[in-house]
Amino acid sequence: MSLFRSQKMKYCHLICNEDSAWDTLNELGEMSTLHFVDPEPNLPLINRPFANYIKRCEEVDFKLQFIKENAIKFQQEIKQCKDYPQLIKYYKKTLEDRSTNEGKKDGKTYFLDLEQEIGDQHKWLEEQLKHYESLQEKKNLLREYKAVLINAKKVFGDTFFQLDNKEQNMDIHAMGLEQILENASQMSSIVGLIDASEALRFQRMVFRVTKGNTYSEIKDIDWQDDPIIDPQTLLPLDKKVFIIIYPRSSMDIIKNKLNRICDSFNCSKFGIPQYQAEYIDKLHEIEEQKKESASLVEMTKYNLVQYFKEWTKIRNGCNCSKVEEFRLYTVKEKGLYHTLNLLKTDQKIYQGYAWIPKSDVDAANNTLVELGRRNPEVVGGQIKPQKKPSQSIEKPPTAFKLNEFTSVFQLITNTYGTPRYREINPGLFSLATFPFLFGVMFGDMAHGFLLFCFGLFLVLNNKNLQQTALAPLCYARFFILFMGFFATYCGFLYNDFLSLSFNFFGSCYDATTPQTCPGTDPKQGFECYLYNQKNVTPAGSFELKTCVYPFGLDPIWSIADNNITFINSYKMKLAVIFGVIQMSLGILLKGWNAISFKQPIDFIFEFIPQITFMALTFGYMDFMIIYKWFCNFQEAESQFAPSIITLLINMPLKFGSPDGPVLYGDPSDPANGLQQKIQMIFLIIALIMVPMMLIPKPIILYYKSKSSRPSHQLLQQGSQQNLQNPLLGNEYHDHSNVGIQKQSSSIEIGLEKELEASLLQKSEQDHHQGDDHGFGELFVHQVIETIEFVLGSISNTASYLRLWALSLAHGQLAKVFFEKTLGGGIQGGNIIAIFIGLTLFVIITLGVIMAMDLMECFLHALRLQWVEFQNKFYKADGYKFEPFSFQTALKTVEV
């Protein structure tokens, strides 16, 4: 099972020639199988050998992004890549065609050609865009000037040409426009354009600075469906004409203040002709220049559009635009050089270490052999599995074979922590347990079916929704589908449909004629729904004969007075049963892990005591719950029905004595009955399990660490004497790469020395770290572990009561919403009330139940999965298998 445990990994050694390094990694990047180990993780990128190549890739990517952004500005559609494996095959075919047709067999030179081409294209584009911007700015300036002249003429009227240049002091406070224009010869003006968003603030600033000794007006501009365009963003600009009239003065104080305000608001200011003929000539001149400028702008824009069409077209065999094709290739090349930085060079030989799935070793080597066969000039590399010389070597990464269905469940597990190598993966169990626990809390036929339909919609329309706002939800489509399915299933178990119950199979009770409850005083007024006569004995006693509601709850409970009491009891007991089962599963998986990792101490002194303690305490509680369900306590015997809570409390307090009615055994002698004996035995064994968890393990670990010190010293001396041993084991495979073998044979011993020295250093550090942990430290740690488990068993079991609490809250919310919105209208028979109530009911249901309550149930299910279940066995201290993969690199590129 690929999801039960992570794939088995091999630690391998990659050797390749300097000339074939690029081709070798290009093939391995397509396979996505090698997780390279960084020999110097603290070395800065700038000090690595291929830092310059990575910088060049980033520069090319920046230029392509510049081209792409401007193509979008000019309304050209960029087709994004949707099929990365096909794109990688296209790149491979392009390199092969280039080698065949042009004789360029060195694949890495393709990027050099792209770099040169893109650099030239980027330079040309920058020049054209600057030219286009200058032409557009000139066109805008002419149109703005014309708009200012026309609007200023409208405001000034006949006095437009009567403004004089005489220097006179005048106060125009509280003067209207007509009075001001009557004294036009004593006035001056500033006209221009300002951004519409700043117009009101500008007008206030002018008034405050001049203390009201000006007249200002803002006029809208009718661009006649042809607004001025921002030359950089190519978006329309919203501007308004401002006109400021102020009295002349010899000091020009007001004029200077107004000019500074205009400059601070980045306003465009224009002069006004002093004569009618000059005004007409200016308008005519502007119109002629505007036509000429518009013609140049359109011609330049046409050339740019044609240029961008070349970049946005889709070339044969590719599934994306040319600019995106080159950009993704640059990303691919950058990832390749990042990986080359993880290799070391010696005598023109590249070598490095990597983890690879055991099942992919032969396939990787066969790929490199095929590379050498296709291109004889390229000496293929070798992947040699290596026997780990020390246990202190870095743990292997965790790799699972995932698909669209399992990936989202594994993502939830990895969010808590990546599984340890070969550890049992809780993600496998979350496929069923997570949506089921959610369904227990969200159980409702209607709400669950709505969620199921939404998940089904995402599944069926996955491809069509990838470019919409629902794209993130498509990744979790199967997860949503499963949650909806289990919520619907639990809704049938609860017989709950928007707080209503359905009589699918016929109730076992007669709801038409309530009668006095058997065994009660009629004066007390207790009424019961009695069994249907076909289901009772002929003698008339109300004993259930054969009737059992086939599936789910009997609908009669929805109208019973003790509905809440019964439903609460039912759901609470279900919650603790599910909880104990899931926690017991977690403990069993802990034992399985101990067997798999060959940890007998953990198996004997942790797993066995823990599973025994859990089974004899809370497992016994589940047994009593189920056993009591099978017992028929009726009429007079109902008073002897024991309380399970009381029985559990009395087990430790009264040493197993029921101290009241017994659940099983001889009821006439509860003090010496079977139940007391069994509970006494269970209690004693459970108490013995606590010191068994606490004491043996730290003692054994302490003496084991003391006895291992001399052997460690011998191991260190022996390792230093055997540094000349062959690096590779019997798994070495000869792939006929004679050239590489001759060149690499001289450095294999050096590689082994380097690796062995590193491993010895790690081993020594780990050893001293273990010595520092004395017996006291080990014992304190085990005390914490024991207390955490014992108290956690109680708190975790209680935590599963959230299944009952959330289910109860969900049902009561649905009931209140239905009764307060739609229920009243249905009872009254008012069509308008029904329509209004239905509208409110739908809005509240979607907003509260299907959004807020759904998220609440999801988070509580997540808590149960992460804490109550996974803390029983899950270490979560591994790290993810991240292979060198072109496909992964391309997927992480921002669109």
Automatic annotation (TrEMBL):
Q: Which UniProt keywords apply?
A: Hydrogen ion transport, Ion transport, Membrane, Transmembrane, Transmembrane helix, Transport
Residue intervals passing through the bilayer: 428-457, 469-494, 574-595, 607-627, 678-703, 831-852
Q: Where is it found, in Gene Ontology cellular component terms?
A: vacuolar proton-transporting V-type ATPase, V0 domain
Give one Pfam family, short name only: V_ATPase_I
Q: How does this protein lie in the membrane?
A: Multi-pass membrane protein
Q: Name one GO molecular function term.
A: proton-transporting ATPase activity, rotational mechanism
- What superkingdom does the record give? Eukaryota
Q: Which residues lie in coiled coils?
A: none
Q: Kindly indicate where the leader peptide sits in this chain.
A: none
| Annotated compartments | Membrane
**InterPro entries reported for this sequence:** V-ATPase_116kDa_su, V-type_ATPase_116kDa_su_euka
According to its UniProt entry, one GO biological process term is: vacuolar acidification
**Which protein family is named in the record?**
Belongs to the V-ATPase 116 kDa subunit family.
Q: What does this protein do?
A: Essential component of the vacuolar proton pump (V-ATPase), a multimeric enzyme that catalyzes the translocation of protons across the membranes. Required for assembly and activity of the V-ATPase.
Q: Which PANTHER family match?
A: V-TYPE PROTON ATPASE SUBUNIT A, VACUOLAR PROTON ATPASES
Designated name of the protein: V-type proton ATPase subunit a
Q: Which organism is it from?
A: Philasterides dicentrarchi
